[in-house]
Amino acid sequence: MTAAPERLLDVAESVRTDLYTKPDLDAVAGIPVYVIADRKHNEVVVLSDPLNGEYRSRAVYRKGQTFTLPESIGAKVEMDVDSLLLT
Question: Which residues have a Cβ under 8 Å from the Cβ of 64 and sit 6 or more positions away?
Answer without folding.
Answer: 81, 82
